[in-house]
Amino acid sequence: MAPATERIPALYLSHGGPPLADDPVWPGQLAAWSAGLPRPRAILMVSAHWEEAPLALGATATVPLVYDFSGFPEHYYQVTYPAPGAPELAKTVRKLLHAPGNLVHDVPDRGLDHGAYVPLAEMYPDADIPVLQISLPTLEPLRLFELGRRLAPLRDEGVLIIGSGFFTHNLQMFSLQHEVHAATAEFDDWGRCALEAQDIDALFDFEVKAPAGRLAHPRTDHFAPLFITLGAAEEDLGTQRSVIDGFCWGLAKRSVQFG
């Protein structure tokens, strides 16, 4: 891939679920965010909803989406997002990650899951930018940070790296009435402060250093993509800003840009 004219930012976003499309505010926030970004040549997506080790590369051609949810109205299963595949990006990712003991394999029929296509449908609704999804090979923050470091050169080639999770993700605190549990608000404020202070060590150790760390995240999966973004944005940590904040369905939807 040829060098880009400018370094593309790296993002961590809270992706929401299929009903995000019907929210009166959130789709507009995502659309406004993407409108202010340089147009990427391709998108590398890491979603909380694909854990697989060794690291796997998803489809490099357009294949059906993965509707990895249940119990929703039928129209959510009719959504399409036929983004082009990104075979050249896949080749570059393989080269960046090639090292003794590092295995990368292909899952050519693995389409984009809802952690990928739900936000992308709002940010890039024309589905005309090539997208490659890779798996989360671990939930260990430091290892994910190192993975992000290795992927960082992609930003100079016009690739938008997106870690897609949810800033808090305890479904026991999910609320159709949008009631916010105190633990959710406390964790969100702690995370904001840690990001602003560039306190990566605290974020690595969020289970014990954050108030209600394990209440906010009973599993690390939805926080884990943040660490890939942090690694990819290591040189730009001082530029971080929360582009989207607040709460939806009782969960913190904080979403952050670096660069």
TrEMBL record:
InterPro entries cross-referenced by the UniProt entry: Extradiol_dOase_DODA, Xdiol_dOase_suB
CDD domains according to UniProt: 45_DOPA_Dioxygenase (cd07363)
One Pfam family here: LigB
Keywords recorded for this protein, A-Z: Dioxygenase, Metal-binding, Oxidoreductase, Zinc
Domain of life: Bacteria
Any one GO molecular function term: ferrous iron binding
Cofactor(s) for this UniProt protein: Zn(2+)
UniProt keyword Metal-binding, yes or no: yes
Residue intervals of the Extradiol ring-cleavage dioxygenase class III enzyme subunit B domain: 30-236
Family, as annotated: Belongs to the DODA-type extradiol aromatic ring-opening dioxygenase family.
Protein name: Dioxygenase
The organism of origin for this protein: Streptomyces cadmiisoli
